[in-house]
Amino acid sequence: MAAAVSARSLKQPSVIPGFGLTLGFTLSYLGLIVLVPLGALVLQAGGVDADKFWNELVSPRTLAAFRVSFGTAIGAALVNGVFGLLVAWVLVRYRFAGRRLVDALIDLPFALPTAVAGIALTALYSHDGWIGQWLAVLGVKVAFTPLGILVALVFVGLPFVVRTVEPVLRDLDREMEEAAALLGASRRHIVARVILPPVLPALITGTTLAFARAVGEYGSVIFIAGNMPGISEILPLLIVIKLEQFDYDGAIVLATLMLVVSFALLLAINMLQAWTRRRQGG
Amino acid sequence: MVDLAARIEPRHARPQASPLPLRESRWLRAVLIGTALLFLLLFLILPLAAVFTEALREGVRVYFAAITDPEAVAAIRLTLVTAAVAVPLNMLFGIAAAWAVTKFEFGGKNFLITLIDLPFSVSPVIGGMVFVLLFGLQGVFGPWLMAHDIKIIFAVPGIIIATLFVTLPFVARELIPLMQQQGTAQEEAAWILGANGWQTFRRVTLPNIKWGLLYGVLLCNGRAIGEFGAVSVVSGHIGGLTNTMPLYVEVLYNDYAFAASFAVASLLTLMALATLALKTVLEWSAGGGRPDAPIH
Predict the structure, then answer these.
(1) Chain B positions in Cβ-Cβ contact with residue A17 (cut-off 8 Å)
(2) Which run of H or of E encompasses B72?
(3) Fewest Cβ atoms closer than 10 Å to its Cβ: which of A5, A150, A248, B264?
């Protein structure tokens, strides 16, 4: 409540009631559920012995998990960037049978529990699965390898790119394309010089959102990954393992590392979204 | 839209018969649509089909035995209880936060909005872990809770708190942009005409935001039912007691009871499909030119 009162002095006058009540409730609730628990984690990280902190951070297993988590998340974000743009383009620009159904299905990864996605993808990509058996013929193993992690992360990240790019594509001014065409530009030229530049900020934002989600993803990955330490073990899983072994300090160090990355990404995403809005406004 | 090209072209009578390059050629269009649909088939449709195929692989009897097993029923009940507590609380939070943020101007507002989004950018595993560090046996309040015989971690309260954490932003982030667009003029008018705060909200604001609110509640509910990482850390996986549906799917899967695992997973999939269907209906009804439609 003290925060609400101090905020009141920063507040501009308004006749609408309920400022103290709603802001007070918001801050108390947010503090209780999110800020205090996260703050406690950071405080406890400060209490970890510096040597232990450093050793945990640079241990081979941590570094390997870091590489796996970031490598697969970057790979999945790039795949999503390319195919997300393609899907958004096809949905906005072309008319074909079943388009609205496809459009509704894009959000499936948001709605489907991650554990269900995990076991379904594992069933598909294991050596006797619908897709895995054909890949096995080609000598490609997906399930229980880092490639499997990539597949799971592509699944969870797809809607972020499509749903960020779609509205920008829809709002594009078609007359700009017509003007470019009248001035003699080829279609390829129009796509590269007229269509892509205004879409780019949204594409980068969506790809970054997909990446941020992929780095922390747990449920869909652990089933398909195989979870081999050093090869296909992701950072969130390593945190869970340390918690199960009651190695709280180890878990705190890894969680702090992930929090720092999350904050950096959150900051980047906020700046990207501001950029997107500026580009759309101008 | 005005088809500029169509209007200008005939008058200029361009020597070459080819139209302006405003679309891709027919075959390129087909290739793009085909590639996109193939990608979606591989990544969205086949996983959906796999869930139901695997669930029914050992027959309908096994399927119904799996979803009526006492442990499955206990998991379903726990999941519903968790959602029934978490969703209304986060709905209340979402409304209060959106009201505070959109109806008033105050310093630090954008920072507050960023803080509300925080649970989305943190790994769900960390969302569960912070409560283990606070309320677990070796946690900050562990000894005190133990002395008073209160169990939070490896018990239902922990599952509910972890779910509250991960689903906190859904309603707020749906309402904030919507109420920002709608502004404050109607509320100010209501207040000046003598309505009190509750009347203003109930009669003026709520009708304006009901579709967005429903939409946020729907997404919040879907995540509350399906949450895995955060809940997994605080649950302890005690059969019949602290397994939610997604956790029970994992337990069955790790026991090689694949058909039963996919049977329970199929219930969650149906829930997800229902969420998508309702969401699509809401988008159509909200975007269909109703008087209370959010302005896009």
Answers:
(1) 191, 196-197, 200
(2) helix B70-103
(3) A5
